[in-house]
Amino acid sequence: MSDLPGERLQKVLANAGLGSRREIERRIEAGEVRVNGKVASLGDRVTPEDRITLGKQRVGSWRLQEQQRRVIIYNKPEGEVVTKSDPEGRPTVFSRLPIIKGSRWIAVGRLDLNTSGLLLFTTDGQLANKLMHPSQQIEREYAVRVHGEVTPAQLQQLVNGIELEDGPARFEDIVESGGEGTNRWFHVVIMEGRKREVRRLWEAIDCKVSRLKRVRFGPIILDSATSVGRWRDLDSKETQALLEAAGIEEKKVTQTTETPRKPVTPKKAPAKKWPARKKRRD
């Protein structure tokens, strides 16, 4: 390895977005990480000049450099998938993001094909891992339209908890937001990011979700200025609030080079009016 002090190997790989610190440490202990051709050990220090492989994957030297932290909010439309390439040829959220050199965008969680709304992307792997880890207990708020009769007893059941196939789940909060008859709007809050969790909870009480949009992730709210299919950078206050939610202290980092690209708007972005959130029920 290099004689330069460098950074601890597990920290560098976690910051590169290759897994959480704990996951990286497990892979090092399992002998899956090599530095300059030699099996690495916990506590090894590396620099961008070192050659690192994780399993069969060579880690590019640019990923070992300290990157400028950048976080953007993206208003995902329905019909886009949260992946860099799709074998079925469906449009992906990454095709709309600004191009950056010497770095890469990491999605903070996912939204399924038919779910719209707030997605966060960052160049900071450590921040992404912290925000997605269940231990951080970060709230996700959704506006949801459900079809079916909903009784107060059923709403209480959703708050108390329901046993799903992958374990118990619950809404931290439910607030009625309008609608008539069997089509009603609610705002719901969950603390996890399990696959289709919001939809599965409603299905457990025989209600079908007909519209689902994420409107908040932790302290970050999807504002009306960020229209469907567009993105914007978080301002300094929003970024600081997100760092605090993730339990990360701010530090000075080097700057990356970016190729500016104008945010894009879908050819057909239907105007949608989301119902105002009503006063919380007692």
Overall SS class: alpha+beta
Largest sheet: 9 strands, mixed
**Considering the protein shown, what is the CATH homologous superfamily of the largest domain?**
Pseudouridine synthase
Helix content: 10-25%
Share of residues in strands: 25-35%
SSE string, helices as H and strands as E: EHHEEEEEEEEEHEHEEEEHEEEHE
Radius of gyration: 21 Å
Spans of at least 5 consecutive residues with low confidence: 252-260
**Average pLDDT metric:** 84
CATH architecture of the largest domain: 2-Layer Sandwich
CATH C-level label of the largest domain:
Alpha Beta
By DSSP, the count of extended strands is 19
Global geometry: elongated
- Kindly, what is the distance between the CA atoms of the first and last residues, rounded to a whole number of angstroms? 62 Å
Individual helix count = 6
**CATH domain fold name of the largest domain:** Pseudouridine synthase
How many structural domains can be distinguished in the coordinates? 3
Short description:
The chain is α+β, with helices and mostly antiparallel strands.
Written description of the protein model:
By secondary structure, the protein is an alpha+beta fold. The chain folds into three domains: 7-64, Structural Genomics Hypothetical 15.5 Kd Protein In mrcA-pckA Intergenic Region, Chain A (Roll); 71-134 and 219-258, Pseudouridine synthase; 139-217, Pseudouridine synthase (2-Layer Sandwich), CATH 3.30.2350.10. 18% of the residues lie in helices and 28% in strands. The chain has six helices and 19 strands. Strands 7, 9, 10, 11, 14, 15, 16, 17 and 18 form a nine-stranded mixed β-sheet that branches. A hairpin with a 7-residue loop joins strand 9 and strand 10. Helix 1 packs across helix 2. The radius of gyration is 21 Å and the shape is elongated.
